[in-house]
Amino acid sequence: MNVVVRNILRAEAQLIEALGRLGVATVHEAQGRIGLMQPYLRPIYPGARVAGSAVTVQGHPGDNWMIHVAAEVVKAGDVLVVAVSSENTDGMFGELLATSLRARGARGLVIDAGCRDVREITEMGFPVWSRAVSAKGTVKATVGAVNVPVVAGGVNVVPGDVIVADDDGVVVVPRRKAAAVAQAGLEREKKEAATRQRLAAGELGLDIYGMRKQLAEKGLKYIDGPVDWPSSDIEGA
Amino acid sequence: MNVVVRNILRAEAQLIEALGRLGVATVHEAQGRIGLMQPYLRPIYPGARVAGSAVTVQGHPGDNWMIHVAAEVVKAGDVLVVAVSSENTDGMFGELLATSLRARGARGLVIDAGCRDVREITEMGFPVWSRAVSAKGTVKATVGAVNVPVVAGGVNVVPGDVIVADDDGVVVVPRRKAAAVAQAGLEREKKEAATRQRLAAGELGLDIYGMRKQLAEKGLKYIDGPVDWPSSDIEGA
Amino acid sequence: MNVVVRNILRAEAQLIEALGRLGVATVHEAQGRIGLMQPYLRPIYPGARVAGSAVTVQGHPGDNWMIHVAAEVVKAGDVLVVAVSSENTDGMFGELLATSLRARGARGLVIDAGCRDVREITEMGFPVWSRAVSAKGTVKATVGAVNVPVVAGGVNVVPGDVIVADDDGVVVVPRRKAAAVAQAGLEREKKEAATRQRLAAGELGLDIYGMRKQLAEKGLKYIDGPVDWPSSDIEGA
Amino acid sequence: MNVVVRNILRAEAQLIEALGRLGVATVHEAQGRIGLMQPYLRPIYPGARVAGSAVTVQGHPGDNWMIHVAAEVVKAGDVLVVAVSSENTDGMFGELLATSLRARGARGLVIDAGCRDVREITEMGFPVWSRAVSAKGTVKATVGAVNVPVVAGGVNVVPGDVIVADDDGVVVVPRRKAAAVAQAGLEREKKEAATRQRLAAGELGLDIYGMRKQLAEKGLKYIDGPVDWPSSDIEGA
Amino acid sequence: MNVVVRNILRAEAQLIEALGRLGVATVHEAQGRIGLMQPYLRPIYPGARVAGSAVTVQGHPGDNWMIHVAAEVVKAGDVLVVAVSSENTDGMFGELLATSLRARGARGLVIDAGCRDVREITEMGFPVWSRAVSAKGTVKATVGAVNVPVVAGGVNVVPGDVIVADDDGVVVVPRRKAAAVAQAGLEREKKEAATRQRLAAGELGLDIYGMRKQLAEKGLKYIDGPVDWPSSDIEGA
Amino acid sequence: MNVVVRNILRAEAQLIEALGRLGVATVHEAQGRIGLMQPYLRPIYPGARVAGSAVTVQGHPGDNWMIHVAAEVVKAGDVLVVAVSSENTDGMFGELLATSLRARGARGLVIDAGCRDVREITEMGFPVWSRAVSAKGTVKATVGAVNVPVVAGGVNVVPGDVIVADDDGVVVVPRRKAAAVAQAGLEREKKEAATRQRLAAGELGLDIYGMRKQLAEKGLKYIDGPVDWPSSDIEGA
Fold first, then answer.
1. Cβ of E169 under 8 Å from any chain F Cβ?
2. Which of A87, A231, B146, F190 is the most exposed place for a label (fewest CB within 10 A)?
3. Which residues of B touch A205 (CB under 8 A)?
C-alpha cells in the first residue's frame, strides 16, 4: 500500500466555496451530524478558516517524509490531510513545508499530529489544524502513502473529499455529497436567520420549536420555588 | 428528579459585583481555597469575565434540550451552569442559544461539555467557559432538570450560588457566604497591594512573610556552590 | 536533598542571546533533536519568548514554598524551572511571585504545574510556560530544593543549562554545549534560508533534498489515477 | 470548614445489604441513572465488592492526614470516601491505613486519588476503588474535613449516603432514597430475569421491547444487501 | 444513512480461524503494520480472544439502540463492532445484550465506548474489548446504522472485514485480503520460530538480523566504559 | 550522543536483593519520597516484581532498534529501562525480544512506551512495566543510545542505578545511595511492623503518631452531630 496516486477527482470549486462560507457547524448539521473530526484538532491561530479538496497523507509517528511527497501532487485549492499510524504529537510540519505547500497552491493543512514554527506559519496566514504544537523534529525513514483513504481525527477521509475547517473544528464532506450538503446548508442558514431574529427579540426556543408538549409527555415537571437549598457548609446545615 | 424550579434565591447584586471585581484567584483564596472548578474549564476567548447567579442545568451527553428549558427561567444577571451526566465534549451550546440567553438577560455560561460557533459568540462578547470546542451537533431527546444542585467541573453548584469566572477559571461561592467572602477578598486585596509594592522594590517573600526560621526547622540547608553539575552528555562525564 | 545552592555556573550571555534568537525549533534540531520538553508545556500568551539560565526548583504538589526560596538566588537573566514531585495542575505561580521574580532580575518561568493571574502576568509581559492555568491556591508546608538537577516536562534540567522557550515550546541546552549548539543553529538557519527561497519558488523538497531515489528503493510506487474511491455512503456503494 | 463531624445518620443495615446484592449497574438504573461516579475509579483487584455507609473525607493533593482523622469516627459497616481538592494520583492510602480501618470496622474505601501496597491490600481482601495505583508518599500538613459533603468521582456524596461498588464502578444512593431504590432495584431484577430467559432462547430485544414501530417512525430503513463494500486498498478500488 | 444492511459478505471460515490462531501481533505485522485499533481498546478480562466477521454498528453517545437492531442481523461467527459518533464511555453494553448476542451466534464484541456487568460477562466467557468499564445507563432515542463502514478505535471497518482480538488489542483485516494476510502470517510464524530458538540460545538479534553494518553507517559508536556517571545527588557532585 | 557504553558500574548484588525485598513503596519512602516513576507505568501482569541494575536505552517513537543493541551489553541481573524521545505507545517490545533478553541474563524491563505479546510474556514470567499494551509494530531506522542517562516515567535514570518494581510501580535508587536506602528501608520496615500490630488491635494513628495536638493547632474542630444533611433531591429540600 506504499503508493502515491497522482491525480484525484475533486468537487466543483463553487461547491467548495459555498461549503466554506457555511462553516463547520452548519455543514456538519446539514449532512446529518456526521463527518466531524474529533475536537482535539484545533487551529494554530484564532480565526483560521479554509475549504478545499483533501489530498491525503498516511504517515508514521515521528516521520514526515510523506508530506514532502504529497507536495508534488497538490493542486491549487487543496487541503492536505495527514494521518499517522499511531498516536503522536511530534512536530511533523513547519514553516519550510508551509512555504512549499503554499507555493504549490495548497490552502491549508489538517494534521493528526504536531505542528511547529507556529509563529512563522501564523504570520504567513497559512491555516493549520493540529493535535498539538511541538518543536519535536522528525525523521524521513519510512514510506507511507499519498492519496489513499486515511482515518484522521476519527473520520475516514477519501482523497477529493471536501474539507471545511474553522474555529469550531474540521468536517469532511464526501465529494459526491458536496452539492446536496451545500444546498441543505444554505436552507438551514436561511431558516436559522429567521429563528435568530425571534430569539433576539426574547421569544423562547420552547415556543419557536414547539417543545412544551413533548417535554411534558417525557415527564418534565415545573415547580415554582424558590427552594431554599441549603449550602453544603456546616453553618448552613 | 426531572423538575424545573422556576424561582431561585439570589445573592444581592452589589455582592455579586464585588466578587466579580475581585476575580477568581482572590475569591478562591478568600473563601479558604475551595469551590474552584477543575482547570479543564477554559474561556472560549481571552479576557472573558463574568459574575452572576447560577441557574443550573442537568443535561445528558449529546443532548441540549434542557438549555432551551432553562432559557425561560433565566433572569437578568444570571449565569447558566450546565452539567452533563457523563463526560462529553459535544457542542451543546451555539450562537442561537447565546442569542436567546442574552435576550433573556443571562450574562454568560459555564458548560461541562463542548461549545460551538465560537467565532460568532466571541464577536457577540458573550462569555463562555467550556471543556472543549466542538461543532458536534446534539439531539433533544432526554429530559433532565433545571435549578437543582448539580456537579460541574468537580464542584457542587446550588442554584443561586455566585459564579465568578475569568481567565483563571471558574469559582463557586455559596449564596449565604457571598458577603463574608467579598469582605475577606477585599481585605486580602488590600494586603496584597502592600506586599506587591515591597516585592516590586526587590524585597523577598522570605522576609516579608518571615519564612526563614520555619524553613530551617524543616531542614532546608544552603550551600554556596557553584556545584559543577556534569551535563548528561558523554563528553561531560 | 533539601538544599539550596546559592551560586551556579551560567553560559555566556551572548551565547544565550544567540540561542534565543534562533528559537526553539532550530535549537532543538541543532543539538540533535534532544532536550525538548513535552508539548503540554504551553505559553500563557501567544508570542511569549525567552532565553536564560536555568535556576531550578524541586517542589511538591499543591505547595509553592520553594519558589519563594528561589527568588533569593535568581540573578539577572535567569529563567526559573519548576518541577513537581508528582503530576499536579495547582496554580503555584501568580502575579505577586511574578512581580518578585522580575524585581530580582528573572526573565521568565517554566513550571510543570499550574499558573494563575494570567491576565495580570500577561499585562506585565512576564513570559510563563505552564502545564495548566488554574487559580487553585497552594500551601507552604514541605521543603524541596533549589538549584539541583530536576526533571521538568520530561527533560533533565541541570542548574545553569540554557532554557529557550517560545510559541513552539521549551528546549534545554546543556551549559557546556551552548557554544556548539549556537554555532550549529546559525549554520542551519543559513542553510534553511537558501532552501526557503527555492521552496517558495515552487521547487520541491523531493528534488532539493534528493529524496526520489531512496523513496523508490524503499518501495514507494506511483500510479496516475484518478481512482474513483467510492464514498462510504450507501448511495455510493 | 475544617471540621470533623463525629456522628452521622446511616441507612438501615438491611437496605444497605439489599443494595449491595443488587450491584452497581442495577442500583444506578433503579435510581434513574444518576449517582454514578466517573469510570476512572477502578477496583484495585477484580471481584472487589462492597456496600456501606459513606464516611467522607475532604483532603488535599499529596496529603493523607485526614484519613487518619477519619479512622476514629468510622463505625462497623462504613465505607470511606476520600475527595481531594485538586486532581492528584499520589498514593494516599496503603496497607497500614487499611489495617487500621479494618480494625475499626470499615468495609472498604473509595479514593479519588492513588492507592499503594496493592499486593498487600489485595491479600487482606480489603476492597479499594481508586483513580490510580501509585507508591508516591504523602505528607501530613494541611487539615481538611471529615463527614461533610464532598465531591468524589464527579458525584456529591453526603455523609451517610449508601455507597455500592463492584467491578462496574461506584454508585452513591442518598440515605433517604435507599428504601425506594432498593425496592425499584428488586423489581428491575425480577423483570430482567424474565427478559434474560427470552433473550437466551434467541428472541430479539426488538420484539421483547416492541421497538420496531418506533425505529421505523424515526426513519430507520432496511436494505437486504449484500453491499459489496470496496475495501480501502488500492487493489480493491 | 440510517440504514440496516441485512446481509453482508464474509470471509471463509477457515481463513478466519487461521487469522485467529495467529493472533493480533502477527496479523498486524503480516498485513504491513496497518489496521490496528488504538490501544485504549482493552479486553474486559485477561485471556479474551476472538476472530470473526465484523457486523458494524454506528451509534451515538449514551444510546445503545442500534445494538438491539444489530442483534437481528448477526450470524454465527460474527463479532459486533460498535462505533459512537463522539467520544463516550457510557456502559452501552451489558449482560442482557451479551446473552442475546450469544444466543444469536455472535462470538464477541468490540465497542468504542463503555461496557458494564463485567463480572457477569466474564463468567459467561463472552469476550469484549471496550474503551472503558462503566455502569452508566443509556437511552434508546436516536437511530444510527448497522452494517455500514464505521470508524472504531481509529480504524475504518467495513462490514465483513475480519476482526482478530486478543490481549494485545484489536486488528482489522479487509475481507479481500484475508487469504493473503493469513498466508503471510503463517510464513512469519514459521520464520519467528526459527529465530526464537536462536535467541533463546543466546544469539543476538544484531547478528541474526545482520544489523551491525547499518548501525555503524548510521553513526552508532561504542565505548568501553565504565563511565562513572555521577548521580544527581548533591553528595555525588 | 549516538553511543553505546559497553560496561557500567553496578551496585552490590546483596543490596539489590535487599531493595527488591523491601518493595517499591518502602524504598520510595526510605530515600525521601523521590525517584518514583509516574504511575502510568503499570506491570503487564499482577504480581510482577523485580530488582536489578539499570541498563538504559534511549530510543525513538515507533522504533525499537536500540533494544536489540542493548541486548548485547546486558549482564545477569540487569533490568532494561527504555526511554523514548517523544510520547509513544507503540509495541516496541515483544516475546522475541523477551526471549533474547532472558537468554542474556536480564531480569525484566521498564519501557516508557508499549509492550505486545503480553500473553506469551506473561507465560514466560518475564516482568515488564509499560505505558501501554499495543501490538503496533515498529521500525528499525533511527539510532539512539545505550547506557547513557535517560528520563523514563519522569525520572532521570543513570546506568547502574537500582531499579525496583512491583505492583505499586517503579522506583529508581541511585547506585551510590543503594546501601543507605536499603538500611533506611529495613529500619522503616521494622518500625512499621510494630505500628501494624497496634493498628490491627484498634489503636488509632492519631494516638500512635501523636497527631492530636498539631491538628488542633492547625484549626481542626470537632462537632458531635449528627448533622441531618439534606440530600440533594427535591423531595429532601
1. yes
2. F190
3. 68, 71, 96-97, 100
